Amino acid sequence: MRRMLVTGGAGFIGANFVQYTLREHPDYEVRVLDALTYAGNPASLAPVAGQVALVEGDICDAELVNILVAESDVVVHFAAESHVDNSLHDPEPFIRTNIVGTYTILEAVRRHARRLHHISTDEVFGDLALDSADRFTERTAYDPSSPYSATKAGSDMLVRAWVRSYGVAATLSNCANNYGPYQHVEKFVPRQITNVLTGTRPKLYGAGENVREWTHVDDHNAAVHLILDRGAIGETYLIGSGDERSNKQILELILEQMDQPSDAYDRVPDRPGHDLRYSNDSTKIRTELGWEPRFGDFRAGLAATIDWYRASESWWGPQKDAAEARYELLGR
Predict the structure, then answer these.
(1) Residues 117-162 pLDDT 10s
(2) Taking the CA of residue 275 as centre, how many other CA atoms within 13 Å lie in the half-sphere pointing to its CB?
(3) What pTM did the predictor assign?
(4) What are the catalytic residues?
(5) N or C terminus: fewer CB in 10 A for the chain?
(6) Side-chain-facing half-sphere of 20: CA atoms under 13 Å
(7) Domains along the sequence of the chain with CATH
């Protein structure tokens, strides 16, 4: 058995990664470290209760991190503050978790010579023009737009520096927008789905022209395992399904699949500095590691996601009022 520490393993992508790992890679013994802030939910690990050890703690706690890393063979680092609107309202938690927390993880894996994979986002690259065919590559210069993406860019740079300066055995990945089960209702797709389910009109920022590339969370996590198994140390891999859609198209597709009129939503003020378009060139991970998304059909993946939220109000219901109260505070 190999021992894996997953930071942020009670969050959206992390919890799905833990479930995927135990289902598809049973040779791993998994331990989760999560601060259980509002975005971390122990209920997201309920399907694997008894198979995974959950430690409540902060990745900035150097003593705790050192103990847990010492007892692990592999560290997969998901833990991050990740909501752009929240970072615009209060950047401090993003600085602390995304930069100081990553530094703390890096020092522990350096001390104990452990394998690290660092999860990041394509938002570190800034954005692309709506009318262009350009895509981000592993060589695209960083140009973050928000406190969130700036702190993730900083964490990526720290990982690369620790690889080069100290020989840390780390890889990195930058993924497009994820969707799927267990995503907090503050995020775009589950917010709109749960608005419909609660009889509230969905919300669209501005004209809704901003374009995102959407990748199912299980496809993302399959890619991470390929990188762990076959990825070259020090390398970065971009992950993306290739399916690009505007926010307006996504919202109208949600309404269509939930048997609602296509115009049954309200427009709200756009987010400051809202990135126009993200698109990843995932040629490297496809050709070098053989990754292919299983959910190449976004409509099918979205329908499965809607079905999960329909059946899982006991999971998302307790979050909903607080999430909408935060949006009301932000005027969105």
Answers:
(1) 999 999 999 999 998 899 999 999 999 999 999 999 999 999 999 9
(2) 23
(3) 0.95
(4) 122-123, 148
(5) N
(6) 22
(7) 2-179+216-239 (3.40.50.720)
